[in-house]
Amino acid sequence: MESQEAPSAGYAEVHIVSASPEDARRVAEVLRRCFSATEQRSYPANGEGGTCLEPTVDTTRAAEPARSWLESSRSAEHTGQEIGRD
C-alpha cells in the first residue's frame, strides 16, 4: 500500500474495496448518512471488475448515530476502556 499524507484534523480517508460497484456504493451511502463526506473517488480495484471508492468524511460534522458513537468513544479514550467493549 502506498504511503499517503494524513488528512486534516477532524477528517478521515475511507478506503472501500468491493467486487461489485453497487456494494461499494451502498457502503459509501451509509457513510454519507452518518458523516458529511466528499464525493468519493472511484476506480477499478483489480482486473476482474472490482471497485474501490475513497470518500473523505468530516468527523466533526457527524449525524446520529455516528455522533453518539464518536462522543462515547472519546470518553472511553480518557478512561482507558477498550472502545466497543462492555
TrEMBL record:
Q: What is this protein called?
A: GNAT family N-acetyltransferase
Q: Where is the composition biased (Basic and acidic residues)?
A: 74-86
Q: Segment Disordered: which positions?
A: 39-86
